[in-house]
Amino acid sequence: MNVREQIKNGVLLMDGSMGSYLSTITGQSSQDCELAVLEQRDIVKDIHQQYLEAGSQAILTNTYNANRVFCHGNDTLVHQLIHEAVAVAREAAEGYDAEIFGDIGPIKGLENGQTGKEYSFVARQFIDAGIRHFVFETNSSAEGIPEAMQYIRENTEDAFIIVMFAVQADGYSLEGYYYRDLIRKITETGLADAVGLNCISGAREMRNLFDQMEHEEILYSFMPSAGSPIVVDNRVVYESDPQFFGRKMAELAANGARILGGCCGTTPEHIRQVARFLAAGTSSVSRPGRTREKVSSGTAKKSAFWEKLQRGEKVIAVELDPPMDADLTKFVQGAYDLKESGADVITIADCPVGRVRMDSSLLACKLEREVGVEALPHLTCRDRNINATKALLLGLYAEGIKNILLVTGDPVPSAERDEVKAVYQFNSRKLATFVASLGETILPEPFHMFGALNVNARNFDIQLQLAQEKERIGMTGFLTQPLLSPRAVENLKRAREGLNGYILAGLFPPVSARNARFMDSEVNGIRVSPEIIEQYEDLDREESERLAVSLMTQFAREAEPYVNGYYLMTPFSRTALIQRIIGSIREEKLI
Prior knowledge:
Blueprint: H1 3-9, E1 12-13, H2 19-26, H3 36-39, H4 41-54, E2 58-60, H5 75-93, E3 99-104, H6 115-128, E4 133-139, H7 145-155, E5 160-165, H8 179-187, E6 194-202, H9 203-211, E7 219-225, E8 229-232, E9 235-238, H10 242-254, E10 259-260, H11 268-280, H12 304-310, E11 315-320, H13 329-340, E12 345-348, H14 360-371, E13 375-380, H15 386-398, E14 403-407, H16 428-441, E15 448-453, H17 460-473, E16 477-482, H18 486-498, E17 502-507, H19 513-522, H20 530-536, H21 541-559, E18 565-569, H22 575-587
Parallel strand pairs: 1-10, 2-3, 3-4, 4-5, 5-6, 6-7, 7-10, 11-12, 11-18, 12-13, 13-14, 14-15, 15-16, 16-17, 17-18
Antiparallel strand pairs: 8-9
Helix pairs in contact: 4-5, 4-11, 5-6, 6-7, 9-10, 10-11, 13-22, 16-17, 19-20, 21-22
């Protein structure tokens, strides 16, 4: 069968799930189903043939996880799995006019730049086995795929390449990328023959997402899961009606999709029903124009902090750590006092150093709504997946919070053998990409995103490059780590030369020699010059605070030509000390 001719004349019908169907038959987990080509060869062959009997015109090799990450670096095992899977598929396809596609699942956990090389290594095994057609499936990002497609094009004549992304019903992948952006990124390479979606979402959700696409001259491929999974006896199962699945898939075909198949939970019966509805013909269902989700928000108010920055006036942000218990008295009073002393915004850390404290976002809402103090909550990438992150951001927007600080966040201190684990589905750049995308798709206005900038880093070149990347993503400003050394000030000057966004210079007053030594040796991202530590020796509390005011004013003065404001961090809830520093900065006319 000629794949291109088949698509030109109609729809190419692929097969359904191998992993979940194999698990149903054997009662074993689908996690290692790739090994079945070695251990349960006849069952894999029979599944291929069941799909072909059901109407599949192409089948995928049982190689979703056949890569060196899954095989713990064993090149030989990867080669063996792929070559055996290709051989089994060929045997199954004998007597059928069907094509075989090499199936390549997502490869994760590699360092930057290594993913494309691993995809290319996997593709090499398929090419050596005589495979010409490829499916890159269930991807949450496009990382490494263009490089692998280029490799295939250079080493295979007339290759047909399909790239599919796994997104939720709202169109976002688990790494926070929006499906239209992912599809655009692949189509712009000119290397893929078809792009589309598979897994996670069901046929109805994919139909809805297809309605929102730009229907250009692109071949679209859809391989949905069989509806939403449920858990029965500790196993994930799917109970989707195959007829419903078939009808919805035929609607996708009627509206322009040219490659169809199934993913998790689909069986030969699902594919049989797709074939039946395709043969019967389904009238085209009109596509509505691209819609936009609406967020109900009665917040017409503007951010005074943001407007002040835009006017070119210097601002003051003060960080307060949330309480560790339910008593808000001291925190709220401190925020109010700081506002009265001239703070433009209160920044609230998100469980700093991984220790549990009151939620920063809820506190921000409370300050703005009940105290009248503008807040800038920190949002870390720790302990929230994409669903929780999106839900939180929608709530913040509805509450009128427009400014957020995005940071990766400190890891949670773990017990032996990782009895306590933290969820890191994003880093700060991926989180910023996700937040920026929400501003383009479902929010009436985007958030003002700020990031962290470590002016104390040993290799500041890397920090500056990361900050520039964040600006390209959509970050509008940076709050720096504390200036407590001449080197930090020099790096601040370099930041001003290399960045376009707003910069707030970090000021964190040590309160004693012991505290200064601790900050220098134990707190990530802070460096205190020995001269400063020496100045605190043998001072009492009042003398130390006078020195702190003097030092912070000095650093503010040195930073003034290069910054748009100051970011003061409050040590040990000493808001009175921060008020004195604000007063001194004002007296010096630095704001």
